[in-house]
Write a structure and sequence with these properties.
The complex is a heterodimer of chains A (228) and B (405). Helices cover 32% and strands 29% of the residues of chain A. Chain A has a single domain, classed as P-loop containing nucleotide triphosphate hydrolases (Rossmann fold, 3-Layer(aba) Sandwich). Chain A is α/β, with parallel strands linked by helices and 228 residues long. Chain A contains seven helices and ten strands. In chain A, the strands form two sheets. A six-stranded mixed β-sheet of chain A has the order 6-7-8-3-9-10, sandwiched between helices. In chain A, strands 2-1-4-5 form a four-stranded antiparallel β-sheet, covered by helices on one side. Chain B has two domains: 183 residues, no CATH class; 205 residues, no CATH class. In chain B, the strands form two sheets. A six-stranded mixed β-barrel of chain B has the order 4-5-10-7-9-8. A two-stranded antiparallel ribbon of chain B has the order 2-3. The longest helix of chain B is centred in the C-terminal third of the chain and has 43 residues. Chain B is elongated, with a radius of gyration of 34 Å. The model of chain B has no long low-confidence stretch (mean pLDDT 84). The chains are: A alpha/beta (228), B alpha+beta (405). At the A-B interface, α2 of A face α1, α10, α11 and α13 of B.
Chain lengths: 228, 405
């Protein structure tokens, strides 16, 4: 379902050119749980932004479900993210002073759904992500880190995405909460979702079944585990 | 659907950040209210100055007889007796833009009333005098045309003359005063108005001009004529026409030999217009500075709040919301804030002007143009600086916006 060939990304800052990706090729099939691991500055985040349609590559091709993403403009990328992609960020990125429910409903704003449909869907997603119903009307800034990440996971599920991207989802959490959140991802994986996880911790990457290791803008190793 | 979503989202966004929305609105409220209040105080002052000048009578032309000459010796202006009642009625009937003509035949006399006496100016005149000299009545009535026609022996007292003859604050209407051994019935008292530059109108006694001629002066001449033009603009034309008319009536071909002279309050008019001009400049600068300060305040609030929300814009983009909807929402928020703040500001400015009038006794005048200007500039600045940074943020890639600090 993901097919990328020779992806390159060059950042130009004044006269200095920095190559963040130096030609990356791989493919991911539906239902996989992939961890992209690498130290900071390795280009893993740049790779995820390109895969997540948040940024365009300088050169190379990227097909998502048979659609060439590298040629889309800003609004078409938005459309793609809205239809196929869910995001979970390290900093949670919830709207402050806004209820849990409204936060989760955000991706369906301006779509052809009624307020009621959105609310129902948000409740389903929140339960799916393991959020207690009593917290649905709490303000987002009154939650603990683990709860915020569950809300963010619920939000990423709202559009029933083909792929869920998780960018250092445990970066701001303690070890115990990290494991709880990772188990939630494993649960989603068992239910058939495709998940791409970005992390720099091997321990977290081990929750996935395939680990792509990135260093200096190139793939260093690509290992599939078969635990089950 | 989309419109509804934008409205709801705007409402939620503004109401879930009450402090931020409140502070932004406060900037707009104060900007608008201060402009409206300042301008209303300024215009009130301008109007009250104009009214005071009007009450002195800046549209007044005084016609006096010319100098009496005997063998090259001039008796001074006003010493000859050349103006008549007929001249007065001719001026009133033949010249355009004349509001009122008040001939007078005045002389100082000794007046007695119930044991007291005083020496003051007795002004024989007609009903129009009250219009020309802006005389208002404290009690009773002024000399009427009827009284003039019938040479009635009636008198109207100036406030000071009343105080001298009957005691301060008394109401002598119906009492009798004696001028040159003739009894006059007191029919009214005027309101004190202070000096007017020519004579003290409060220390005068007014009688019908015909009565004055019969019983007091014993002549048929007019010592002065006061002519009121309808407004300041027609002064010059009226003055020239009076001059032409009187030269013709008196059979004089050379204007230099005229047996009368004309005076007006041109210097007062000049002062009035220069004061009014200064005030206009003062008002414009007050309004301009208030608008500038208010506008910068609004600009700052809008720029900071929207820039602060760059991450939020990034998130919205990341979850797949299109640029246009983000732009529309921020535009809607800016419009909502500026209009709500604008209405409160107009109401507050209005209230403050009324309060200034009520408690500080300063006249204020609220003008529609100041409201429109203040509202327009504030709304324009608010919307521009609410929308522009949001638009810029929405044009960033979602990741850049999310990382924005």
């Amino acid at each position: 379902m993901i097919e990328c060939k020779d992806l390159k990304k060059i950042y130009i800052n004044g006269d200095v050119e920095t190559a963040a990706l130096k030609g990356v090729s791989f493919s991911i099939v539906k239902g996989e749980f992939v961890a992209i691991i690498g130290p900071s500055g390795s280009g893993k985040s740049t790779l995820m932004h390109i895969l997540g349609a948040l940024d365009s590559p300088t050169s190379g091709t990227y097909f998502l479900e048979g659609k060439e993403v590298s040629k889309l403009d800003d609004d078409e990328l938005s459309e793609l993210r809205r239809e196929k992609i869910g995001f979970v960020f390290q900093a949670f990125n919830l709207l402050p002073r806004t209820t849990v429910l409204r936060n989760v409903m955000l991706p369906l704003l301006y779509s052809d759904t009624t307020e009621k449909e959105r609310e129902d869907r948000a409740k389903i997603c929140l339960k799916y992500a393991g959020m207690e119903e009593s917290k649905f009307n709490n303000l987002s800034n009154q939650l603990s880190g683990g709860q915020m990440q569950r809300v963010a996971i619920a939000r990423s599920l709202m559009n029933n995405p083909a792929i869920i991207f998780a960018d250092e989802p445990t970066g701001n959490l303690d070890t115990k909460t990290s494991h709880v959140v990772m188990e939630a991802f494993q649960e989603l994986h068992r239910k058939g979702h495709t998940i791409i996880l970005i992390t720099h911790e091997l321990e977290i990457a081990n929750f996935a079944e395939r680990i792509i290791s990135v260093r200096d803008g190139a793939i260093e190793s690509d290992v599939k585990k078969n635990i089950q | 659907m989309v419109a509804m979503d934008i409205l709801k989202e705007t409402f939620w966004s503004l109401s879930s950040n009450k402090v931020r929305s409140g502070l932004t609105m406060l900037g707009i409220v104060i900007g608008i209210a201060s402009v409206i209040t300042m301008v209303s105080i300024g215009q009130g002052a301008q109007a009250s100055i104009a009214t005071s000048i009007q009450s002195i009578g800046s549209n007044l032309i005084i016609v006096r007889p010319g100098a009496q000459r005997s063998g090259g010796v001039s008796g001074g202006a006003g010493s000859s007796a050349t103006l008549t009642m007929d001249d007065a009625s001719a001026i009133k009937s033949e010249i355009l833009n004349v509001q009122a003509v008040a001939p007078e035949d005045s002389r100082r006399s000794q007046i007695t009333a119930r044991g007291t006496n005083t020496n003051t100016q007795v002004v024989g005149t007609v009903a129009d005098y009250a219009i020309v000299r802006s005389i208002a009545m404290e009690s009773g009535i002024f000399v009427t045309d009827q009284a003039v026609k019938s040479s009635a022996k009636v008198a109207v007292l100036g406030a000071t003359a009343r105080d001298d003859l009957f005691g301060a604050g008394s109401n002598p209407v119906g009492q009798i005063i004696r001028i040159k051994n003739v009894d006059f019935d007191v029919i009214g008292v005027t309101i004190a108005k202070g000096g007017s530059g020519f004579t003290n109108p409060d220390d005068s006694i007014y009688v019908p001009i015909t009565s004055a001629q019969h019983f007091i002066t014993g002549d048929t001449f007019v010592t002065t004529m006061s002519v009121a033009a309808v407004d300041q603009n027609s002064m010059v034309a009226v003055q020239n026409q009076i001059s032409d008319l009187l030269l013709k009536r008196h059979n004089i071909s050379d204007p230099l030999q005229a047996d009368f002279s004309l005076m007006n309050q041109a210097d007062i008019i000049a002062t009035a217009s220069s004061i009014t001009g200064t005030f206009t400049i003062l008002l414009a600068s007050i309004a301009g500075i208030s608008l500038l300060v208010g506008g910068i305040g609004i600009m700052n609030m809008m720029l900071t709040t929207v820039t602060e929300r760059t991450r939020e814009i990034g998130l919205r983009k990341a979850v797949g919301i299109k640029k246009i909807y983000i732009n529309m929402q921020f535009l809607a928020e800016a419009v909502a804030l500026t209009f709500l703040g604008g209405f409160i500001g107009v109401a507050l400015g209005w209230g403050a002007s009324l309060a200034v009038t009520k408690f500080a006794s300063i006249a204020t005048q609220i003008s529609t143009s100041s409201i429109l200007l203040a509202f327009g500039v504030s709304a324009g600045v608010g919307i521009l600086f609410g929308f522009y940074p949001a638009r810029r943020a929405a044009n960033l890639s979602p990741m850049e916006a999310l990382r924005y600090e």
